[in-house]
Design a protein that fits this description.
The complex is a heterodimer. Chain A is mainly α. In chain A, 66% of the residues lie in helices and 0% in strands. Chain A is built from 16 helices and no strands. Chain B is elongated.
């Protein structure tokens, strides 16, 4: 009988099919404020994420000014007080991970690309998709509003360790702490809803003929990332509820004076926190795979290898979390186990990088703006990965813990992921998203003015960290014996570089706006790429392919195929 | 616009989309409850004294609630059966009965909690009681959510529309039941 229900279902759809793609005119609110179209929801996520990135970047500027030039007023902000410093650092981290990396890499690219790349007209649950964005938007408003309540925004670091996060007499932010954890929990709910949508859509709604190995890598990566997120975030969501109760109802889950355990929070947090790194990494890796094959005109070297390493990374990522807690009082024998698993996880990631380098080898490379971003991703992430091995070894980590070395390490991983990965994807799919080509000259200028300062911010911080500079010191003037003049110089270099990098983003926004308004019109397939989205018009209408959805005949990376005469690409939808 | 994308009619994985999605939803819920119960079990093993606190719970009330919730799952199965036969009216009535089971469960819970709180066993009394109220409270929130959604499903099923939803809400309801099957021995019986 289940069969007849499904038929009933299909008949239902046929009745309404006409209305779906027909001449129904949508009002402004229907189209832009409460859209059901996956592409418009993707744009909402994208621009909310970029707006939050500006805020997070500005926070970084304010506290970096304080670090390099303590006691002077930061232009546009003023004197940073110690409490402000803590809340700026905390919210910079929280915003950049939860309100920039997640919405842009998973939600915006996932929403935009999954239906287009698998040849579907929309997500399977458009209304849940819209709800997911709305919950996300509320969470963003909640985190921003925490700056305007009494006591100010939460300042106990993005990891929110108790008792600093649970006891108002320590944090001095009775309302800010609760708003912070509420915003984070809401954000998780939004991405759980979005994730179910992504996974179900990719599993069920692929175009006829699209087998497992014909799915573009970026779709695979976003789906694996969504599964990772879903399987790791639950304990922290539960922990979030427990933390809200600790803050407001007088429970003592994380309070040792009343039988609780503060380390429990650390376990719940990092059980999610470490897989989270791979949740945002995998989509960026997928974006890079699409770009290097198109601009290298070569088949992806080892499609299945990349896929298996991604799954292997995902599985291993659940076993490494306590490497964040080497000095939290965990059993040293346990620390050895986590050292081994942490070093192991670099194997699949290294494998992935080798595959990418092998893909580039012998290709006919075009150094376009997206390709520059993709190549720099491989290069910069490598530095982040290799410095991770230093920190994964528990003996060394005890020395390095909480120094600028750790900070530089995770910025060398998250920056390539969240910023470089986003710019790579955004410049690559811009013609599809907005129907116009971006200015290549400005794009390259923006690339160099972003990537050079990025390195001059964080390379000095590796040096400072190895010399023992501690990352949570508000004002190093109070420790003159620990801060030599050369250290001050390196801190100033990092801050000046940050200012240059932030100013360079003006070029990006100028480029986006002018290209959007008056750039040359983009053809359907400006890069001669194979995947489905390039067979739709630029930008695709609601429903993506009004003339009929595509059928898949081959894998996504058939570039320079020897059997293909006359062109070096072979779109997935072309029969024969 | 109540149009449906063609995407929703495909099933490349061989399972109808709504059923696939509810299984993923349950996967995510399992980890949420896993976090609470895992933390509880670790604490419980480390603190022998919690057995004394747990002795204050009333296993008879817990057993009655287990019985109520399990019976409501039976009517959810019968509702699915009716929906398969295309009998939307009967499916709707059985869903109402299932919701009623949820309501009885919540009323008993309210009575039980009121008694306990009035005897000083509040959420902040000690960490055992914190876990007791938090774990059962998160579960109760799921009962409430499931009950509300079930009323909507019954509303459409009555008109013989969207009958496939009866199965979906049933799967969810069984999961909520199953969580209680874990909570009952952990919070009430283990001494």
């Amino acid at each position: 009988m289940a069969e007849s229900i499904r038929v009933d279902h299909a008949a239902h759809h046929d009745d309404h099919h006409g209305a779906h793609h027909g001449g129904h005119e949508m009002s402004f609110t229907e189209k832009y404020v409460f859209p059901l179209d996956h592409k418009m929801i993707a744009m909402q996520y994208m621009f909310t994420g970029m707006f939050m990135a500006l805020i997070g970047g500005f926070f970084a500027y304010a506290f970096r000014w304080q670090i390099a030039f303590p006691g002077t007023e930061a232009p546009l902000w003023g004197q940073v007080s110690p409490a402000e410093y803590n809340s700026l650092v905390t919210n910079h981290g929280s915003i950049m991970i939860f309100w920039v990396a997640m919405p842009v890499l998973i939600a915006a690219f996932g929403n935009y690309l999954i239906p287009l790349m698998i040849g579907a007209d929309d997500m399977v649950f458009p209304k849940i998709n819209r709800l997911s964005y709305q919950i996300f938007l509320i969470s963003a408003i909640v985190i921003l509003s925490s700056f305007f309540v009494e006591g100010g925004a939460f300042g106990g670091a993005w990891t929110a360790y108790p008792p600093l996060s649970t006891k108002a007499e320590y944090s001095l932010t009775p309302l800010g702490s609760t708003l912070w954890i509420t915003a984070v929990a809401l954000e998780f709910v939004a991405f759980l809803l979005g994730g179910i949508n992504f996974i179900t859509t990719a599993m069920n709604s692929r175009a006829p003929g699209m087998k497992m190995w014909d799915i573009p890598m970026v779709v695979w990566m976003i789906v694996i990332a969504s599964i990772l997120f879903m399987l790791s975030v639950g304990p922290l969501l539960a922990g979030g509820i427990m933390m809200i109760f600790d803050q407001n109802l007088g429970t003592a889950f994380f309070n040792p004076d009343k039988g609780g355990d503060p380390i429990l929070w650390q376990h719940l947090f990092w059980f999610f926190g470490h897989p989270e790194v791979y949740v945002v990494l995998l989509p960026a890796v997928g974006i890079v795979a699409e770009i290097i094959t198109v601009f290298g005109r070569k088949k992806l070297f080892g499609y299945k290898t990349v896929l298996y390493t991604a799954i292997g990374t995902g599985v291993l990522s659940f076993t490494v979390w306590a490497h964040h807690q080497f000095i939290a009082g965990i059993d040293p024998r346990m620390a050895n186990v986590f050292t081994v698993t942490t070093l192991l996880i670099s194997v699949p990631i290294a494998e992935m990088m080798f595959v990418y380098i092998a893909t580039l080898y012998g290709g006919s490379i075009t150094l376009s703006t997206p390709m520059l971003w993709a190549l720099s991703f491989i290069f910069e992430f490598l530095i982040g990965g290799i410095t991770g091995i230093f920190l994964g070894a528990s003996g060394n980590d005890i020395f390095m813990h909480d120094t600028y070395f750790v900070l530089a390490h995770f910025h060398y991983t998250f920056y390539p992921i969240a910023i470089i990965g986003t710019y790579a994807g955004f410049t690559y799919w811009f013609p599809k998203m907005f129907g116009r080509m971006m200015n290549e000259k400005l794009g390259k200028l923006h690339f160099w003015l972003t990537i050079i300062p990025f390195n001059t911010i964080f390379l000095p911080l590796f040096v400072l960290g190895a010399a023992g500079h501690h990352r949570r010191i508000f004002d190093y003037r109070n420790f003159p014996e620990l801060s030599h003049p050369w250290m001050w110089d390196l801190q100033a270099l990092a801050t000046y570089s940050l200012i240059v990098m932030l100013l360079a983003q003006i070029i990006f926004f100028y480029n986006v706006i002018t290209s959007w308004i008056s750039g040359p019109k983009a053809p359907k397939n400006p890069w001669n790429a194979n995947t489905f989205e390039w067979t739709a018009t630029s930008p695709p209408p609601h429903g993506n392919w009004p003339e009929g959805l595509p059928t898949c005949y081959r894998g996504p990376y058939e570039y320079s195929h020897p059997d293909r005469k006359g062109s070096d690409f072979w779109p997935q939808n072309e029969p024969g | 616009m109540s149009s449906r994308p063609i995407a929703t009619t495909r099933s490349a994985a061989g399972m109808p989309t709504p059923r696939l999605a509810v299984w993923w939803l349950i996967a995510s819920e399992i980890v949420i409850f896993g976090g609470v119960l895992g933390s509880y079990i670790m604490h419980r093993l480390a603190h022998g004294i919690w057995a004394d606190y747990a002795a204050n719970t009333n296993p008879w009330i817990g057993a009655f609630n287990t019985f109520v919730l399990l019976s409501s799952s039976l009517s959810a199965v019968l509702a699915h059966q009716a929906a398969e036969r295309g009998d939307g009216k009967r499916a709707a009535n059985l869903l109402y009965l299932t919701t009623l089971g949820g309501v009885v469960f919540l009323c008993v819970k309210a009575f039980e909690w009121t008694t306990e709180i009035s005897h000083g066993m509040t959420i902040s009394a000690n960490t055992f009681w914190s876990f007791y109220y938090t774990a059962a409270g998160i579960h109760a929130a799921h009962v409430i959510a499931g009950g509300i959604i079930m009323l909507f499903v019954a509303q459409t099923a009555k008109r013989n529309e969207e009958l496939h939803r009866v199965e979906i809400i049933g799967i969810y309801w069984h999961f909520v039941d199953l969580v209680w099957i874990f909570l009952f021995p952990l919070l009430y019986i283990a001494k």
